[in-house]
Amino acid sequence: MKKAYLIALLSLALLALAWTVTLRSQDPADSLPAGFASEPLGGEFSVLTAAGEKQLKDFRGKGVVLYFGYRSCPDICPTTLGFTAAALKQLDEATRDKLQVIFYSVDPERDTPALVSEYAAYFDPTFIGGTNTREEIDRSVADYGAFYRILESDSSMGYLVDHSARLYLIDPQGKLAGHIEHGTPPNEIAERLKSLVAS
Predict the structure, then answer these.
(1) Which of 33, 64, 115, 137 has the smallest number of Cβ neighbours within 10 A?
(2) Per-residue H/E/C for the chain
(3) Low-confidence ranges of the chain (pLDDT < 70)
């Protein structure tokens, strides 16, 4: 009886450990699929929006917050965009004017520029939403050390997209300055954004 109890206790401990590791791996950058950069390099990218093509160089002089995701994402994308919008609300107007958030969809088959633009603006009217061709998406994703992969699903959506969940911070000169992990609370995001554009 005592032996069975200890085995059960050990099993529960192992399950708890596995669950903890899963929670800490929200952004599985250490298990990138082949073909994607293990270290983010940054660089120029473009997104096709409802208002036309936007390129990183169009935002010189501003800090850019880049996020790769997709419009049908059930949890991670809306949480991250919501936290980012809440962080912006904590900043003064002058600081907000020095920042641009870009939501870059990696699901161009379902996410048209118009739909992604509308989705991003739902969180904050200043957010830019867009996508691109699969070739351009893959290049930009690799340059920033992000990743995504299509997962077949029995859901009505047909498939899901597993993707990295970091916010990439790009300084006013267009250089990659760092990233913010998924789940970072809005007040901490706000402090990082202030630092990004501090002059």
Answers:
(1) 33
(2) CHHHHHHHHHHHHHHHHHHHHHHCCCCCHHHCCCCCCCCCCCCCCEEEECCEEEEHHHHCCCEEEEEEECCCCCCHHHHHHHHHHHHHHCCCHHHHCCEEEEEEECCCCCCCHHHHHHHHHHHCCCCEEEECCHHHHHHHHHHCCCCEEEEECCCCCCEEEEECCCEEEECCCCCEEEEECCCCCHHHHHHHHHHHHCC
(3) 1-40, 155, 199
Q: What is the domain partition of the chain in residue ranges?
A: 42-197
Token reading at 100: 């641009």
Q: How far apart are CA 80 and CA 193, in angstroms?
A: 14
C-alpha span between 30 and 41 (Å, rounded): 16
The pTM of this model reads 0.80
- End-to-end distance of the chain based on CA atoms, in angstroms? 67
Q: How high is the pLDDT of residue 37? A: 43
Give the CATH architecture of domain 42-197.
3-Layer(aba) Sandwich (3.40)
pLDDT in tens, 94-145: 999 999 999 999 999 999 999 999 999 999 999 999 999 999 999 999 999 9
- Among residues 113, 128, 106, the alpha carbon closest in space to that of 58 is found at 128
Name the residue type at position 50. A
